[in-house]
Write a structure and sequence with these properties.
Two copies of one chain form a homodimer.
Chain A: H1 26-46, H2 52-63, E1 67-68, H3 69-76, H4 80-92, E2 96-100, E3 108-112, H5 114-137, H6 140-157
The structure holds a DNA duplex (30 and 30 nucleotides).
Chain lengths: ~170, ~170
DNA sequence: GGCGGTGTATCAGCCCCCTGATATAACGTA
DNA sequence: TACGTTATATCAGGGGGCTGATACACCGCC
């Protein structure tokens, strides 16, 4: 949209609408990168009518079929409740089937259907395309550097010093 | 928690529950860092009964009062629809007031109330505490490096070469 | 003066994600 | 065998985010 200088809420905003952030937080850069990543992936996957969580779940199932909902939740780093709805949506689409485990009456294991396999391959190609933009923009040394810095940031954020528990420990990837 | 080796869905999962990811994507590191960041901020802000989007909105209003919903949406990088619900929740809490702009009948401008100002200061202190963990873990050179790599990643992801529009162009921060 | 484009706000519907609570199945141990 | 622990799945409720669609106000142009 470029920008519109009409600014109809004019009676305030003494400086600019987005003034130079006094706390130009490093966290903001992380957030923007993640937002760009998930946004582009969402756009790419929309062409096959999949959301990002749905795609990640399918990918996990392609790698090792017959996982339970709880396993998938851990693998996708979401709560079991969230995975329940994702799986329900995937089943509605006919991409997976769920049946009780042969070794545990309570467990529902999920498997890709034929069309689920096909769509997963298509979706993965699309998602890799987005990821490719990252690896194209950074040389291998920079990629390693970025990964290192991010991992250290993650560790620092997750406390390890705070002492308190992490609530639902979904971080135990 | 830790891990349980029972693995009741056993009839599948030929390898481990979370097999070494064949595509050990860089994007995953970004996602994890952002998830840790927002998770810790959420935890910190819960003590003052605020969500992250609510806090960001308050912070924007503190910096320049009287912004419209659309301006706030752009500043927070969310859609106007989302901002509508955030503002409604903030108004219910008595932290902001909204009134029609003097220059545009259609526009509702938001202002912090007295308690809104007070809570924003408290919340900002909490959020800064989380951000502090980042700056403590990385020396200044590394921080600059991380910011640089993230910004380049964001730019690469957002295309600038893809040519297509970005859908709702909320990226115009 | 009428008209369309732009900006704004909001409703509706859907998905994701969380916390909290509940119910059931398998396992280990007394 | 009875009991408690663990893991599982699911329901209920709420916040947030998106797209799509609708409605109103302003502005500029004809």
């Amino acid at each position: 949209m470029t920008d519109h200088s009409t600014d109809p809420a004019g009676e305030a905003a003494p400086a600019a609408p987005a003034p130079a952030n006094p706390h130009d937080r490093l966290g903001h850069a992380i957030k923007r990168a993640e937002q760009a990543l998930i946004g582009e992936k969402t756009r790419a996957l929309r062409t096959v009518d999949l959301t990002v969580p749905q795609y990640v779940t399918l990918l996990l199932l392609q790698q090792s079929t017959g996982m339970s909902g709880a396993q998938l939740a851990r693998g996708c780093m979401v709560t079991p409740q969230t995975m329940t709805t994702v799986l329900a949506n995937l089943e509605t689409k006919g991409l997976i089937t769920r049946e009780t485990s042969s070794v545990h009456q309570k467990v529902l294991v999920a498997r890709l259907t034929r069309s689920g396999h096909a769509l997963t391959r298509k979706a993965d190609a699309l998602a890799r395309g987005v990821e490719q933009r990252l690896t194209d923009a950074l040389d291998p040394a920079e990629q390693a550097q970025l990964r290192n810095l991010l991992d250290r940031s993650t560790a620092a954020l997750r406390g390890t010093d705070g002492g308190a528990d992490r609530g639902t420990d979904r971080g135990a990837d």
